[in-house]
Structures are given as C-alpha cells and as structure tokens.
Amino acid sequence: MKxxxxxxxxxxxxxxxxxxxxxxxxFAFHGPGDEVxxxxxxxxxLKITTITGTGDKKLPLEPERNTxxxxxxxxxxxxxxxxxxxxxxIHKKMPxxxxxxxxxxxxxxxxxxxxxxxxxxxxxxxxxxxxxxxEEIADGAYHADNVGPALLxxxxxxRENKTLDVHKLxxxxxxxxxxVYPHIEVLTKDARAVLSNQLELxxxxxxxxxxxxxxxxxxxxxxxxxxxxxxxxxxxPQRAQLISGFADVKASAIxxxxxxxxxxxxxxxxxxxxxxxxTAKHVAQEMKSAFQKYxxxxxxxxxxxxxAGAIQM
Length: 313
Ligand code: HSE
What we know:
Blueprint: E1 6-16, E2 25-40, E3 46-52, H1 67-78, E4 86-91, H2 102-117, H3 124-139, H4 147-152, E5 155-160, E6 165-169, E7 175-182, H5 188-193, H6 201-219, H7 223-229, H8 236-239, H9 246-255, E8 260-263, E9 270-275, H10 277-292, E10 298-304, E11 311-312
Parallel strand pairs: 3-4
Antiparallel strand pairs: 1-2, 1-11, 2-4, 2-5, 5-6, 7-9, 7-10, 8-9
Helix pairs in contact: 1-2, 1-3, 2-3, 6-7, 9-10
Bound molecules: L-homoserine (HSE).
C-alpha cells in the first residue's frame, strides 16, 4: 500500500428522488460541493482539525459523530489502518438543509479522501457502503440517492438501499439541470416526518408508470418522455407546503421550457430538467425570480449532469 502524505478531494451537490424515485433515484450536478483535505500526522488515529463553511452551525469534530469522519473511519477500520495518524479538514461549500445533499457530499468526500490517501486500494463502487453509513449519521436513514451520485457521479437508480443494489443510468447528451436553492431551511428529518405511510393503489400505479418512463426516456434519449415522466404524485404533494412559492416556481420552470420540475431531495431546493444549456440557464433565472416574488432570495445553478462524482483536486 503506497500511502500519500496529503490529498484534497471534492464531492459535488446532488439531486435526490428526481421527482418519481423517492429514495431510489439521484444525480450529481456541477455547482457547489464539499472539499476534504486529509494528511498524515505523527499522532495515531484520525483527528478532524478544521471545519469551515458552516456559518453559525457547529458540526461535531469527533470522527465517530461526523459524516465525513465516520465514512473515512469505516474504510480505515476495514483496511486495518485505524491507527494511522491522520488529520482531516472539512470545507463545506454548500448549505445544510438545502436539499442539495450537503451531508452526502461530506460523507462521499471523507471516504474518497481516505481511499485516495491510501493509494486507492478500493474502487469507488466498493466505497459506497462506508459513504452511506457516514451520511446515516446525519439524517438517520440508510439511503444512497444523494451519497451514491456524490461519490460515483451520473444518474443512479437504486433497486434496494439495504443491499446497495445500485445501477448507473445513461445520461442523454443534451440533458441539463436548473437548480435553485431558496434561502430557507428544511431539515430532511422534518421533510420525512410529514410523509404518510398510506398510499392509494392508483398513486402507486401512476408513480410506477412515471418511474419506468423516466428510465426508458434516459435510455432512448427521449426528452418528451422524460418530461411526461417527471410527475410526482406521492411525495411532492405532501412536501410542497414546506416550500413557500413552490407551485409558482415549478410553474415558471415549465412555462419557460423545462421538461419537468420538482423538489430536489427533501427540499427546499427545486430542480428542473431541461434540454440544452441555454434553456437550463434561462429556467434557473426564472425560478429565482419566482422565489423573489415571495421575498425569498436564492442561488441558481445550471449544469449538465456531473458524471465524475468525487474527484481528487
Ligand atoms: N430521498 C431523501 C428524501 C433525500 O427525500 O427524504 C434526502 O435525504
């Protein structure tokens, strides 16, 4: 094992659920993300020395309680390297509670940094269970719809989270995303708490139809089908109340040319899939303006799907 002295890695923001795949679909995009620096030190064990970018929120410095630290520790233990002297810096470059996969990006970056420093003994796919366990520290649920794409890039379909039966879907060349993050906070655990466990059979049928259609649309570069498929009849109607102006923001995306739009992950960010970069940029701007009418400032991003995931910088 050839151990490096220092690595700096980046893991990107992600959009989970993608309207019709609650907990089982997600993709990465080019926009904000988290950086982790990991370096050798003479003191045994992993220490988190610095966390920046958290504003007035404090994240735990104990590796066992920190998403990036816990993900890295899992790998170090797996490789029998838990006594290796290491210092970790975490530089958060995106807000908490944004629906952009902030804790997932930290977890993916943490384990990817540890693996890279150790000379990449495991493939990225093999790192996924450690990354998911890291994110679980933050939101208490074991699902890979953010952390999977943050680590592996692309659009991921997860047949089952328990066994991490994860599959990469094709990315149509012109597919772009507009994402707008309104400056309000929705915590994932609160957005999960509003969800009912009851489902009408008709909702199940419609959602399954849309999920299948979205996957076919991605395989066949069929943008119209992708657009028709982006209709969430189960989760979005229950969570829209948590995001002021959501209906108008979504309507503005669709009237301005988006294929479809919905809540990014647990919200409050809203995403719209678009054909082409120019449309995505325009739609992002229009969604920002729609939030502004509600007195809500926002950040907007327009990008292709990020197929790289976590990278060494
Ligand atoms: N699938 C998750 C949810 C993503 O919507 O609750 C946020 O962690």
